[in-house]
């Protein structure tokens, strides 16, 4: 009887326990740890404040030196179950996590969305890294957000034209130098458009800043950014 019951259960992608109660693809306990962060962050760069319950607002740095985008949307901090899911998905071939991560992206964007974007643009991988990994995690998140918003995902809008060292291996100054001039935008696809730029994790923001600057130089009207997770500095 127990074996038959087991056939109706699903294995939680976070804790690997068998459960017959799933919320968005995770067990109830793990789903409770995958809730959207509601406050205590900067609305432009996602800088995390000490008080989690304080209202979202601009941090001091963004008041004096604004980001090249207007708003940043993210699910929660890059730690715990969310970090585990992203790392397994990107580097261990856990492609089954795509649905759950897509659901989390839509949940976060739904809570914070404003103007519907004209197009969605994923942060691109260089063709060498795409060949090695087999998929672009930002493009997969973009699919889920595109289905939710009805906005088309335009992969050709932004291309990575220079192969770079992985940003995770570098400090802030090295990241900025490493990513400089690594992208090019297709003007006829982005000019005058309101764009949602999508990536999986925001750490220092160097990659997103370079992408956004490249898009703005090509005539983009405005940019909002979506990431699944905001890393602690």
UniProtKB/TrEMBL annotation:
Domain Phosphoribosyltransferase: 109-230
Alphabetical UniProt keywords: Glycosyltransferase, Transferase
One GO MF term attached to the UniProt entry: glycosyltransferase activity
Superkingdom: Bacteria
Entry's family note: Belongs to the ComF/GntX family.
Protein name in UniProt: Phosphoribosyltransferase
Organism in which the protein naturally occurs: Pseudodesulfovibrio profundus
SUPFAM superfamilies: PRTase-like (SSF53271)
């Amino acid at each position: 009887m127990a074996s038959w019951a087991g056939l109706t259960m699903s294995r939680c992608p976070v804790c690997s326990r068998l459960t017959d109660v799933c919320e968005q693809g995770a067990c109830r306990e793990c789903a409770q740890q995958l809730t959207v962060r509601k406050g205590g962050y900067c609305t432009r760069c996602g800088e995390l404040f000490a008080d989690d319950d304080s209202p979202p607002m601009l941090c001091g740095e963004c008041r004096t030196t604004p980001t090249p985008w207007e708003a940043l949307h993210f699910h929660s901090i890059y730690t715990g179950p969310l970090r585990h899911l992203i790392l397994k998905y990107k580097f261990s071939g856990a492609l089954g996590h795509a649905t759950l991560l897509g659901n989390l992206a839509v949940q976060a964007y739904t809570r914070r969305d404003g103007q519907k974007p004209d197009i969605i643009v994923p942060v691109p991988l260089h063709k060498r890294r795409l060949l090695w990994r087999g998929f672009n995690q930002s493009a997969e998140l973009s699919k889920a957000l595109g289905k939710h918003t009805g906005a088309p995902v335009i992969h050709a809008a932004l291309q990575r034209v220079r192969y770079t060292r992985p940003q995770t291996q570098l400090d802030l100054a090295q990241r900025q130098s490493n990513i400089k001039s690594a992208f090019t935008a297709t003007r006829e696809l982005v000019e005058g458009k309101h764009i949602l730029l999508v990536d999986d994790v925001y750490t220092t923001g160097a990659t997103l800043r370079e992408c956004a600057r490249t898009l703005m130089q090509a005539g983009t009207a405005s940019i909002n950014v979506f990431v699944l997770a905001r890393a602690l500095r």
